[in-house]
Design brief:
The chain has 418 residues and is mainly beta. The protein is built from five helices and 28 strands. It is 11% helix and 42% strand. It is globular. It starts with 5 loop residues before the first helix and ends with a strand.
Amino acid sequence: MLVTDSGWFQRWACRAASRVGFIVVVHSAFACGPDGPTPSDHTEPTPAATIRDSAGIRMVVTPAEQALAPAGLRVAAEPDLVLGTGESADEQFFGVRGLREYGVGQVIVADGFSSELRRYDGTGALVARFGGSGSGPGEFATLDLVPAPGQDSLLVWDADQRRMHVVAPDGSGFRVFQPETWHGRVPPIGATGGKLLVGFLGLVTVEEMRRPGVRLMPRQYAWHDASTGGEIPAWETDDPMGLFVERPGRPPLGAALPFAANPTVAVGLGTALLTQGPPAEIRAIDVTGRMAAIYRIDDFPVREVSDSMIEAYVDARFDNEESRAFWMNQFSRPPVPDTMPAFEALLVDAEDWLWARLYRISEDEPQRWVLFDPEGVARGTVKTPTAVTIHRIAADAILGVQRDSLQVERVVRYPLSR
């Protein structure tokens, strides 16, 4: 059973209920009291956004002129904290599996190699470490820090042992539960209201695996109830896994399909947030599996795929002329999409704002994010450092991982002004 602190859970569930119109009940019913949502918890929609109800689905439409204009937020040009520059094992990271802010200026790092959670103060000094490799309580064979909006405790998924740890941020206590049903070893996408959002691939036949052409894999998302073990379907889609070319007497040769509309998912308070394809829209699915809202950008500029874009894609991924020529020929005609997807990544910040990263041709392009407020109104864009993989957006900082020329990981924190 997932054990939570009832105080924060009530505040969390009340905020989720106010957003999508339901109350989450775990173990016993409760009402939203004085610790529930207040007017300051919500940002009033700007006059430019249109909000309407369509067949029970809340539609929020923001014009592109507003959605793509610079927002009021600013990310500092330089980090104010860099971790991982020392020579000792305590100061190095190998496979960062999650980041989280804690207290005043402190940072928690989930390090994959050591299977540890490490807490550093604002000066970069190690102040606590907990976890470690093992099978006992509070030990991990592997670890992934699972996003859990509104939750103070850390959720740590151990894929090898298929169990979830609920960890106090100061390391003072561990609680463990093991899901009765699970799909594979992948970590949950996120958690909210006592539910874990999991994604998994559907079954395909051997004949389908051997068939040339674009391989569409059925992908399903479901809410997993931490207390009962039951699952509620949330969303089903086809995920373009790649293009496979027939070779006489040999298995098909495959490669990722350029500019494919792969599904992108995040978890907010009481909702799963999903996007796929060129339409610049986000779907909000509540924990009952109902589509509660659609956040859309009207007149979003479509980016058409050109031959030069395909050539740049091929040059970045294949290291010899023969392979480049072969795949350039395969990608120069359908089924390569005519247009790019709108978004390629979703993150929910500590204030329950959704950050949707605009699709990039290559990782060398700047990262530009559209910010949606808790009501689903697109409030503008913000840029983040190009070479930083963002793991967590706190109230006043961005936490991410940057690699140097030797691919050594550095945990970086950039101040964020709202």
